[in-house]
């Protein structure tokens, strides 16, 4: 593959189209196969498959150089994700995908960083990292595959399991109200992109991920997905009844195709720049709000605040080091300082 | 012991009130070389001027202690820097209370500095204190009760408490008791004297005390003024001026009111030296190693390294990332390292425990990583400000499963600097985690070492972004050394998913028993490959003898000082200090064989054979002793001390004498 591609994340979705067209000329064309690796070992009907397909399409459409792309995941069913991408990947520790992705991002702004986590991964064991990742607002696309259950460890209640859900650790029903990841995320300082989708509307899934990818900052996408193994009927009512999904649309958000609006008639015009309305929309769970809840491109990105554009030459390091040594040096009598 | 006869010395303060200060009777005097600087700063009312007796010394230990926030630490550090500038050997140790603001005048609240200085190089904090400056009697009593003061040592104490009705009684009782116990007590009206130069006298006392010490030790007042200018450099000319005035007042006070002086001749040094504490040395090492990112979370006593680094790292394009927790600091570092920039994370015991799972990921994925653990007292929260060496086993064997990593321990402040450069190199050469075990003793001690000469080879090479040869695998373990070439994101053709799961050469999750066996072998072999490159440790003293003392980390100075002293007395004792704890250098078994007896001396626990229920079948040995016994099948004995204080040469001497008897 030719590696001369557009390496920097786009700075705004509305970047001058002429500029884009120019960049297109240098882009290598990729096929879906360039991003595919192995045969996923997820159950058939698992939402992870839909997400993988959407992401591979996104990579192809954005012509991402596979060697310049890194998928980071934690532990859980969904965290096998990087193994099925023919890019670089880190299948890390339970809950720790975000700080690893942040380290990669700070060290290498030339790489595209994606994160795949499960609901237990992100909202339970990794909750501290989730909160702070939002605050850092580093440029990456974070997907939470939320099936309301721990799958890999065999059906335990997760923070998003609805109250009353019978699982192996809550045989008489989950004791607590479910955590609402959207309202939490929207309450964190520096939040810059929050979206929610469901795995059974592939077109919206793709559209949302694409918008999230183009967002300059930390894009948080909660994907509500089915678990056919442990909760086979859990979301059936939502699947059957289009009225239980609320599509969010706006000129600054998602624009909806007619085939979608024909089936899903519950539609709200929601301006993603309105955080107050976003919080109201986020607090509703039935119907499930789907689309972009919040987008703010002007939030500072930690990696840009912190990183230095100067070339770290040995001369630069030496100069800084000698200056520090000077501060602490005791010169013998008669010996003049060399770096006065 | 005889109580000092006191002569009253009168001096007037601003309000015209007569204050009483004391100065002991002079037994024997000879002419003191009084600096001309005194003449310019003498107070308006001419006091009695005792003739000072001058004593020449090889070395001395001075302490300055106060309530927290009264500036004794700044005074001590400045004094340490001044004696170093004068060409003396010096080692300073911070005296730190566990709380930020313990109650004023409390026995447990002593905050300050101990400065050991002498004609020749000083390698440790030494034994007991010879002279102490105290701002109140309570913090002083704390030090007396901790047995840190030499019996009969000289005490210079703030006398204002005599006038304070609330505490006058406890003050005078304490002073009387100290005198009765044989301490030479000099009561000095520090606050009254400072008042002449500064409205808020409480704040300036430390510089007054610094001036006193400069006078008492016949040091150059000019160097003192320069040091004050350096210390307060950031605060502007006015602050410097008033502090210099206090310094000079203290100096003048000593010249006019105290009847003794010390002189410690300096050996002539011809090379430039830098004076920093161990944590600053670590941070300078990070700068010099070419590493670009340090990810940390605040924890005592490691944080001062990150404070300093935060201040200077950006000058060379580096970043200190304060993560949301210890785990995030470690995983952030792993992410950056994975992406091609070997990264360091700095922590202490509790943080080190939290990082262990992540360290295992770096071991499994073969990601280079430098982890600094500035050890403190444990377990749990333990003694955050005190020193201990009890994380050796968790550094070597920590993280679940078989997780081989490199562990090395700096023994001096100079080592702290170079160990980071070495750790980065080893980490990247062997794709391993390297743990640096420093401790609170090194972290908070200052001593000069030869100014390092910059070497480009210290720096990390640029990130390899060349295409990976067709057919190459991300874990192509060499069957002899276990080493594999690492693929860094951005390298075309190198795409793979690094995983913490067992994996094969292609980084595919391994379900096959043989693959796991092969991979574990490879990761373990890397330690042996590193070990083959190490030189045998050097023996301090003769290669054979009656006793070999073995240590690691910050105890080196104390051990070698005791060994030197006893060798001068004809004892056949040597010592050996290990830098590499994992892997251990070759040749150790042969060294052990040269001695009749071997004993490890460490600041981690070992059961006492004298305890009733302790015997050979249940005694826990110190950590290094345990390692040496199991590896070399030698009956290594051990001595341990977990007092939280740095090991003293006198303790080592006692242990050696007992072992030899």
Describe this structure in words.
The complex is a heterodimer of chains A (340) and B (661). Chain A has 340 residues and is an alpha/beta fold. Helices cover 33% and strands 17% of the residues of chain A. Chain A is built from 12 helices and 12 strands. Chain A has helices spanning 17-26, 47-61, 97-107, 119-125, 127-136, 181-186, 202-214, 236-240, 258-263, 275-282, 302-306, 314-328; strands at 69-73, 88-91, 112-118, 140-146, 149-150, 156-157, 193-198, 218-224, 245-249, 267-269, 288-295, 329-330. In chain A, the strands form 2 sheets. Chain A has a 9-stranded mixed β-sheet, with helices on both faces. A two-stranded antiparallel ribbon of chain A has the order 5-6. In chain A, helix 2 (47-61) packs across helix 7 and helix 4 (119-125) crosses helix 5. With 661 residues, chain B is of the alpha/beta class. Chain B folds into 3 domains: 57-263, Pyruvate-ferredoxin Oxidoreductase, domain 3; 274-458, Thiamin diphosphate (ThDP)-binding fold, Pyr/PP domains (Rossmann fold, 3-Layer(aba) Sandwich); 539-660, Rossmann fold. In chain B, the strands form 5 sheets. In chain B, strands 9-8-7-4-6-5-18-11 form an 8-stranded mixed β-sheet, with helices on both faces. In chain B, strands 13-12-14-15-17-16-23 form a 7-stranded mixed β-sheet, with helices on both faces. A 5-stranded mixed β-sheet of chain B has the order 20-22-21-24-25, sandwiched between helices. In chain B, strand 7, helix 3 (137-145) and strand 8 (149-158) form a beta-alpha-beta unit. Chain B is globular and about 90 Å long. The chains are: A alpha/beta (340), B alpha/beta (661). At the A-B interface, strand 1, strand 2, helix 3, helix 5 and helix 12 of A face helix 2, strand 11, helix 9, helix 11 and helix 12 of B. Strand 12 of chain A pairs antiparallel with strand 11 of chain B.
